[in-house]
Amino acid sequence: MSNNMVDSLLLIIDVQRGFINDNTKHIPSKVTELQKKYGPVAATAFQNPGHSPFRTILNWNGFSPRSEETDLAYVLKPGAPLFWKSDYSGPTNKILRFLTENGIKTVDICGINTDVCVQYTALSLFQSGFRVRVIADACGSTRGLEYHRAGLLCVSHGIGKDNIVV
């Protein structure tokens, strides 16, 4: 990783109790260590309200608001904002406003699931004009290494392979 981590924001995607399994158990400790290297840090957390397409289309009822599944699986840096979301996307209007108001130009991303939420967030932030880097070893997929690698491959096509940091 370059020496300008202080000039970058670390965005932690959905590192929550309900997403921790054998494929992602390494991520909370990685996130804890990464937070020490960054000035600004922010995080997202997923919840699945009753009207979501996860419930109505996929018939998946996990992550009800305020359930233990939605608890963070690490300690978020004091003062860092936590943005709740109910979809794959990380860059909500609140997050985009926060990044713009704080003069953030580069967003380094880590978290869960590389193949869905991490990828979607990285591509969306890139399209919004931010330099985006994905910290590969601090990401993972609940579905396993194959999904994690597929997510990295796809996102590298969109943001550039040099922006996948190992």
Tell me what you see in this structure.
With 166 residues, the chain is of the alpha/beta class. It has one domain (5-165): Rossmann fold (3-Layer(aba) Sandwich). It is built from 5 helices and 6 strands. The chain has helices at residues 27-37, 53-56, 93-101, 114-127, 145-159; strands at 9-13, 41-46, 82-85, 106-112, 131-140, 164-165. A 6-stranded parallel β-sheet has the order 3-2-1-4-5-6. Helix 1 (27-37) links the parallel strand 1 (9-13) and strand 2. Helix 4 runs parallel beside helix 5. The protein is globular.
The count of DSSP E runs of length 2 or more, i.e. the number of strands, is 6
**Regions with little confidence, pLDDT below 50 for 5+ residues:** none
Mean pLDDT: 92
- Beta strand %: 15-25%
CATH superfamily: Isochorismatase-like
Instruction: Report the sheet with the most strands, covering strand number, pairing sense and barrel closure.
Output: 6 strands, parallel
Distance between the termini: 8 Å
Number of helices: 5
Order of the strands making up the biggest sheet: 3-2-1-4-5-6
CATH first level = Alpha Beta
| Domain tally | 1
CATH architectural label: 3-Layer(aba) Sandwich
Radius of gyration: 15 Å
Structural class: alpha/beta
Q: And the CATH topology?
A: Rossmann fold
* Element string (H = helix, E = strand): EHEHEHEHEHE
- What gross morphology would you assign? globular
Share of helical residues: 25-40%
Task: For the structure shown, list the relevant keywords.
alpha/beta; Rossmann fold; 32% helix; 166 residues; six-stranded parallel sheet; 6 strands
